[in-house]
Amino acid sequence: MLVVTDLRIGGTPTVVRELALRLRTRASIHVVSLADEGPVGAEIARAGVSVSALGMRGVRDVLAVRRLAGILRDKRIDTCCSFLIHASAMAAAAKWLCPRVRLIQSVQTTQPYPAWHWGLQRLVHHAADTIVVPSPSAAAAASRRAGVPARKIVIIPNAVDAAQFEGVGRCDAEELRRPPAVGFIGRLDPVKRIGDLLAAARLLRGAVQVHIFGAGGEEARLRRALEDPVLRDVVTMHGEVRRPQDALRLIDLLVLPSEAEGFGLVLIEAMAAGIPVVATDVPGIRDVVRHGETGLLVPPRRPAALAEAIRTVIGDSALRRRLRQAAAAEVRARYTWDVVLPQYMRLLRID
Q1: pLDDT tens digits for range 81-103
Q2: What is the set of domains in the chain, with CATH numbers?
Q3: What number of other Cβ atoms are within 10 A of residue 149's Cβ?
Q4: What angle do CA 338, 152, 156 make, to 5 degrees?
Q5: Residue 121 burial (CB < 10 Å; 0-12/13-18/19+)?
C-alpha cells in the first residue's frame, strides 16, 4: 500500500503515481489518499490500480485511522509505504491496529517549518522499519530535526522517464525566444520564494518574459504583485498544469528560487528536457544541481543574484549548450526509473 496526504498535482503525488504504475505488474498495489481522490488519483485508477480516498475532515477525524486499518486488513497488505507527515502519522496509528504490517515512511522535505511537523515525525518514526528520503540533505534534516537514527534511513532519489521529455526543450541551444521565456513550475507556496523571481524580473527590465505555472496559497499575493506596471507586461500566471511537459515547452530557462527543497522533481524534469536550470544553493537543490556543470546556483533570498544568473545563461549560448548536455547525462546516469525502481524493489522486497 502507498499512502499519501493527497493526490493533487505535485511532486510527491507524481512519485506515488509512478511507483504505483511501475510496480503494478510485480506486486498487488493499492493507493490511499487521506483526502479525496484528486486528479493524480484519477490517473492511477484509470491505469487499473486500486485507489481509496479516506475523505478526512481535518486532524480530528480519528475514525479515518480505523478506515485505513480496515483497508490494510481487507487488502491483506503486508507492507505500507507512507508519504508526507500526515500520511505517516495516520499509517503509524493504523499500524498499532495492524501490528504485522511492515511500515516504511518517506520524508520528502528539508523545510524547517512548520516545526510541529518535525516534532510529529520524531514521534511516528518509531513505528517504521525504514525512513526513505530523496537526498542526502533530506537525510540530514530527518536526523537533525526528527531524531531519526542513520541506520533507519535509506536514500532513494526521485526519478523521471527520460523518454517522456525528449524533444520537449528546443533542440538548438543557440536559439531563444524573443524575449527569452523564463519559467517557474510548482506549488505557489512561501517556501518557493516566487516573489524573488518577480523581483529579479523587475531588475531585468523587460529582458525576459516570466511564466509561472502552479496553484497554491500564494496565488492571491502574487496576482496583487502583478498590479505593478513593470511586471504586468512581463509576467504571466498560467495556473496548474497536468503535465510538466506542457509548461516546459513554453520556456527557455527554468528557475527554482526556493529556500528549501527535499529534492526538486521539476529540476530533473527540466534537465531531462534539455532546459537549462537556475536555482538556489539550498538543501535538496544542491544535491541535484552541480553549480557551473548541470545548472547555476545562487544564494537564496537574493533577487539581484538571481537576475544576474538568468542574464548570464540567456546571454551565453555555449554555456547553455554545456549545461544542457551535462544535465541530460546526469539524469540518464542517476535519475531515470531504470536506475531508481530497482532500489525501491529491493527496499519493498519485490523480486
Answers
A1: 999 999 999 999 999 999 999 99
A2: 2-159+337-348 (3.40.50.2000), 162-334 (3.40.50.2000)
A3: 10
A4: 20
A5: buried
